[in-house]
């Protein structure tokens, strides 16, 4: 029953986010601030993880190609497929659920605990629109982060393969061009947009409706990470089932 | 003037406010007092519209908040100012930005007009050289003054204060109490203060409502509170020896 209550409250919150808009000049400023905090602020960690995980994918693939009849270009092929289809959109989103999700939950939760949300309400401001809408808009720039992740993941695989002596440059490049299906990029971005909406709204829900004090802010951040990750995994399964089968 | 009529409010089946009826008068500091858990904050937040009430009515002037549409409610909200217990200043904004915030959100004034008005109220609450400081860089007493400045910047008709001097030293508490009373009289605001600070009761209690277990137990002012025979009020206000002595001296001098 509690879960039904939360689902209902989440959708009611979404409804209120898109009603009674606050002034555009204020929203614009908030959107820019959120793009900086949520998107620009995440590029560093995403770039670092993507580069090295791309390298690990390439090394793991190379180490498992024990049959001499299997061509070396499969390393590039497997790296591209893994990075574009799953690693960049899905696993980076799980990491972002930890980084961005916790940030959103704790910042809104702290505003709740310190009565800043009540202060906004007393002024007659639609707090849902003022606090959550800019985050949703900012997260629509999230696919740019995923493009960087895809690029650096493949570059990481390239460097690991070449400098690790697993294959030569021409083989790796042949592999990443092999049987390329442009729709896979569309599929990855469609998933990313769905994940970006989850990443903006689920942590906002946990922060906005927080009850209690500082300890509860910590608990809510953890709960928010768990539920955001669960929803991303479920959404990933459903989009894959619908678009690729 | 704010009129509360037969107000009921419950949470999860537990009655928190039972049949509260009272009037908060214009140009006066109206105090709601009572022990922790007596329903003071719930009453204040119900009047503000932060809680939906179960039964009863609340009138701001002649306007019942139960029967107004969203647009009228929005206009009414612009006539209200609130000072929260912990000040509730926006941590990422400077003092000046905090004070200008309601004007930015609710008016079409130019930046210069907003800044000039913000400086007026900053001066009124006796703050200097704090415009560009963050709330975390100023003292608790200064934060309370900033919160008061933000609450009055839109020239409200109604000012609500939730324990405005909690966590402040006695001297700063008195300064904040006097400031609220001066502003109330100067701008003829209907001020409602939720407190359990007995100094405030004695100093600025032009109208006092005592709540106990969600019911209005007593109503009067800071003169009548010395003479009341009500045991619950007596037990609450004169629980310390100091205030017992103060009462004795007052009664002796005014016999």
Helix count from the secondary structure assignment of chain A: 9
Strands of the widest sheet of chain B, in order across it, are: 6-7-8-3-9-10
Q: Could you tell me the radius of gyration of chain B in angstroms?
A: 19 Å
If you consult CATH, what is the topology of the largest domain in chain B? Rossmann fold
Using the coordinates above, name the CATH class of the largest domain in chain B. Alpha Beta
- Major beta sheet summary of chain A: none
Order of helices and strands of chain A: HHHHHHHHH
Domain count of chain A: the total is: 1
Mean pLDDT of chain A: 94
Q: What is the global morphology of chain A?
A: elongated
Main structural class of chain A: mainly alpha
* Low-pLDDT residue intervals, each spanning 5 or more residues of chain A: none
Task: Give the CA-CA distance, first to last residue of chain B.
Answer: 34 Å
Please compute the radius of gyration of chain A using only Cα atoms: 21 Å
Number of domains of chain B: 2
Major sheet characteristics of chain B: 6 strands, mixed
Oligomer: heterodimer
Principal-axes shape call of chain B: globular
Number of strands of chain A: 0
Percent helix of chain A: over 70%
Separation of termini of chain A? 34 Å
Report on the architecture of this protein.
The complex is a heterodimer of chains A (245) and B (255). By secondary structure, chain A is mainly alpha-helical. Chain A has one domain (24-244). Chain A is 84% helix and 0% strand. Chain A is built from nine helices and no strands. Chain A is elongated. The two termini of chain A are 34 Å apart. With 255 residues, chain B is an alpha/beta fold. Chain B has two domains: 2-79 and 156-253, Rossmann fold, CATH 3.40.50; 91-155, no CATH class. Chain B is built from ten helices and ten strands. A six-stranded mixed β-sheet of chain B has the order 6-7-8-3-9-10, sandwiched between helices. In chain B, strands 2-1-4-5 form a four-stranded antiparallel β-sheet, with helices on one face. In chain B, helix 6 links the parallel strand 7 (158-162) and strand 8. In chain B, helix 3 packs across helix 4 (111-124), helix 3 runs parallel beside helix 5 and helix 4 packs across helix 5. Chains A and B meet through helix 4 of A and helix 2, strand 6 and helix 3 of B.
């Amino acid at each position: 029953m509690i879960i039904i209550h939360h689902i209902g409250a989440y959708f009611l919150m979404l409804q209120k986010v898109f009603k009674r808009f606050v002034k555009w000049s204020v929203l614009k400023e908030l959107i820019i601030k959120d793009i900086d905090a949520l998107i620009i602020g995440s590029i560093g960690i995403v770039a670092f993880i993507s580069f090295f995980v791309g390298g690990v994918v390439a090394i793991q693939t190379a180490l498992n190609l024990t049959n001499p009849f299997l061509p070396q270009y499969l390393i590039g092929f497997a790296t591209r497929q893994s990075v574009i289809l799953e690693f960049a959109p899905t696993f980076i989103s799980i990491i972002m659920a930890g980084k961005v999700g916790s940030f959103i939950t704790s910042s809104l939760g702290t505003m709740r605990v310190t009565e800043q949300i009540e202060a906004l309400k007393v002024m007659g401001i639609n707090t849902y629109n003022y606090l959550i809408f800019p985050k949703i808009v900012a997260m629509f720039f999230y696919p740019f982060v995923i493009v960087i992740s895809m690029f650096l993941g493949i570059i990481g695989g390239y460097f690991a393969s070449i400098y690790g002596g697993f294959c030569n440059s021409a083989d790796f490049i042949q592999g990443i061009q092999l049987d390329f299906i442009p729709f896979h990029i569309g599929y990855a971005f469609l998933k990313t947009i769905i994940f970006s909406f989850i990443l903006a709204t689920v942590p906002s829900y946990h922060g906005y409706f927080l009850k209690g004090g500082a300890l509860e802010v910590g608990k809510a951040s953890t709960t928010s990470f768990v539920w955001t990750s669960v929803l991303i995994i479920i959404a990933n399964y459903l989009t894959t089932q619908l678009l690729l089968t | 003037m704010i009129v509360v009529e037969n107000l009921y409010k419950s949470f999860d089946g537990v009655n928190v406010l039972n049949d509260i009826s009272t009037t908060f008068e214009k140009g006066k500091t109206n105090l709601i007092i009572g022990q922790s858990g007596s329903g003071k904050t719930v009453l204040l937040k119900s009047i503000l519209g932060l809680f939906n009430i179960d039964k009863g009515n609340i009138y701001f002037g002649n306007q019942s908040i139960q029967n107004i549409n969203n647009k009228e409610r929005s206009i009414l909200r612009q006539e209200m100012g609130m000072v929260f217990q912990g000040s509730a200043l926006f941590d990422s904004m400077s003092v000046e930005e905090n004070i200008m915030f309601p004007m930015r959100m609710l008016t079409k004034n130019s930046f210069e007009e907003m800044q000039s008005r913000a400086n007026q109220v900053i001066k009124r609450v006796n703050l200097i050289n704090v415009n560009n400081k963050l709330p975390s860089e100023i003292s608790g007493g200064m934060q309370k003054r900033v919160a008061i400045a933000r609450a009055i910047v839109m020239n409200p008709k109604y000012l609500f204060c939730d324990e405005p001097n909690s966590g402040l030293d006695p001297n700063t508490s008195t300064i904040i109490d006097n400031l609220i009373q001066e502003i109330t009289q100067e701008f003829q605001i209907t001020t409602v203060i939720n407190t359990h600070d007995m100094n405030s009761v004695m100093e600025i209690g032009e109208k006092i409502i005592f709540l106990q277990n969600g019911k209005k137990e007593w109503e009067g002012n800071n003169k009548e509170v010395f003479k009341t025979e009500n045991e619950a009020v007596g037990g609450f206000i004169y629980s310390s020896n100091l205030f017992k002595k103060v009462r004795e001296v007052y009664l002796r001098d005014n016999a």
